[in-house]
Structures are given as C-alpha cells and as structure tokens.
C-alpha cells in the first residue's frame, strides 16, 4: 500500500469549472486525506463568497495565487493578491471577494486542519447568510 496519492486539478484557468461547486473543488474528496483538507478556488472579478463562515475546531490557511481581492475577517477587511497568505483561527467569521477591477480571477488554495482527523471533526462550520459583506455598506 502506498503512502502518497496524486491528483491532477488542471491549470488555474480550469478551476472555474470544478465539479463540487462552480469555482470550488475539494481536493480532499479526490484523494484520501486524514488530517488536512484542501480546496482549490476561483472567483471572477466582482464576485464574492455566497456567505460568511467560521469554524469551531479547524483553522484555515488561504494561499492566494492570482488576482486581486479582499477578505472580510470579523470586522476587518484585508487586501489579498498573489503571494498573500492568511491564517484564520477558530471562531473568526470570514468572507472573500474578487475586486471588480481585478485583471484576472482571484485564485487561491484553502488548507484546513484541526487537532483531530477530519472525519472526527465532521461538519463544524457556522454559516451566516444574513450578514452583509463588509464592502456592501
């Protein structure tokens, strides 16, 4: 039995047509991870995440690869671009958007991990579909 797995996500320009949701592909559904989850994401200029979310047990690291955008982190807004890395701890509400004038789609990897296996952590997300994005004020 091997202790590694390989999956091809395709080039950054193909991420928008991912199978999970438009613009999001859960890598950990394609390969058998135990302690870490990864998603490959893309958002077109002017688009944003559909909702805020936080995690009770997981922390996330966002690694931005392309485009220009912003992250709402509780009451703060942080500018992001290729090369920006943002760690978000437990309990922090977050939302993302690609700036309307971004020259290309905002693309990033989201790596999530906790102090237990992902299976034991289960679904621990908290959604807030009513809270407006911080740039919509």
From TrEMBL:
Q: Which Pfam families match?
A: Cupin_2 (PF07883)
Q: Which UniProt keywords apply?
A: Metal-binding
Originating organism: Microbacterium horticulturae
Question: Where on the tree of life does the source sit, at the highest rank?
Answer: Bacteria
Q: What is this protein called?
A: Cupin domain-containing protein
Cupin type-2 domain location, by residue? 43-111
Q: Does the keyword S-adenosyl-L-methionine apply?
A: no
Keyword Metal-binding appears in the UniProt entry: yes
Q: Which SUPFAM superfamilies match?
A: RmlC-like cupins
